[in-house]
Each structure stands twice: as C-alpha cells, then as structure tokens.
C-alpha cells in the first residue's frame, strides 16, 4: 500500500471513529443504531436492541482479517476482470478499509451520505452496482466514474473519476458537473460527520 493509500485508509478510519464519538457524545454514550435484519447480518452489529433495531459501529476490515473473522482482504479483482479495467486505487482503498452503515456528512458543497459495505455479502452487491454503473458510463461514452456517496438531491451522486482520482458531483446518467475535491484524501480533510 502506497503512503497516499495509507493516508486515505487512516482518514476513513478516523472519520468513522469521529462519527461514533460524536454520536455517543450527543446520545448518552450510546452507539448509533440501525434497522436489524436477520438476513443481513454484519460484523458491525454490537447488540440487538429490539426486534427491528440494533446498535452498530464501523469496524476495520484489516482487523477482521487479522482475527480471521473473514478469510482474506476484500478485493476488486473480479470487477476489474469483468470490465477489463483497472479501478483507481483510492476507490479500492475507500471501500476495503471498513465495514459500516452509511454515514451522514457535511462538506463545503452541502450534505452527503457516505456509502460503505455493511458486510462481505453487501460488498458483493456493491461490486455488482459498480459494474452496472461503469457499464452505463461506457455505453453513454462518458469517462468512467465510481460512486461512493449520495446527496440530498435524489439524482445527484458523488463519484470518483477513475482516471484522475478527482471527486465530482454528477447526475445519474450524465457527465460529472461539479468538482468537489482533488482526491478522496482531500475530501476527508474537509468533510465532517453530522451524527
């Protein structure tokens, strides 16, 4: 892992820790909660609070591999083979650093919801969605992007330009229209959790 990828991984981990800390500070030291689904379990789940609710916290994927709770690090090799394309290292680092529920955030350009994989099964679903998104971009003869966040506006996503690593806002099916940051690492220096 290059130093820039280590920096990005650390930024993601720090952001996730800040999210939990802020939530606990505002909610009597309780962890964030989310809907509980018996069919959609995750190593993020701390405890079941009710039939349809559980507490959770982001968890480092490297820690799960180290503790042999998952067999091997997550990889985008199958996506790259299916598309005959190399994904930008930043997006691979972003999605393989933590398992987490989505996290609400704020940046200079407005509110966004950062997307993460909840579990290994969710990581597989994420990969399928990324393949579909990139195939759509190729069909439209647009530069490949990989989404990693959504905004308050239903049809605007935040994505990474696969060629340059820049972060852009784009309408689904359209070319990116507003540059948000030079890189994912730069984005994390200016994004705040709003737990």
TrEMBL record:
Pfam families: Syd. Keywords: Cell inner membrane, Cell membrane, Membrane. It is a peripheral membrane protein. InterPro entries: Syd, Syd_sf. It is found in: Cell inner membrane. It comes from the Bacteria. Interacts with the SecY protein in vivo. May bind preferentially to an uncomplexed state of SecY, thus functioning either as a chelating agent for excess SecY in the cell or as a regulatory factor that negatively controls the translocase function. Belongs to the Syd family. This is Protein Syd. It comes from Colwellia asteriadis.
């Amino acid at each position: 892992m290059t130093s820039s990828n280590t920096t990005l991984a650390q930024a993601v981990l720090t952001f996730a820790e800040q999210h939990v800390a802020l939530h606990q500070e505002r909610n009597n030291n309780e962890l964030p909660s989310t809907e509980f689904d018996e069919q959609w379990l995750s190593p993020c789940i701390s405890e079941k609070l009710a039939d349809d609710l559980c507490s959770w916290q982001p968890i480092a994927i490297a820690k799960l591999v180290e503790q042999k709770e998952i067999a091997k690090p997550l990889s985008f090799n199958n996506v790259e083979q299916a598309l005959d394309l190399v994904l930008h290292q930043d997006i691979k680092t972003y999605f393989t650093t933590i398992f987490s529920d989505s996290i609400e955030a704020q940046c200079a350009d407005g509110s966004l919801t950062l997307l993460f994989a909840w579990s290994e099964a969710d990581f597989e679903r994420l990969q399928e969605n990324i393949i579909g998104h990139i195939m759509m971009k190729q069909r439209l003869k647009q530069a490949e992007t990989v989404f990693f966040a959504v905004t308050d506006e239903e049809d605007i996503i935040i994505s990474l330009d696969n060629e340059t690593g820049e972060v852009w806002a784009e309408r689904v099916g359209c070319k990116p229209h507003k540059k948000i940051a030079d890189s994912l690492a730069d984005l994390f220096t200016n994004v705040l959790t709003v737990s």
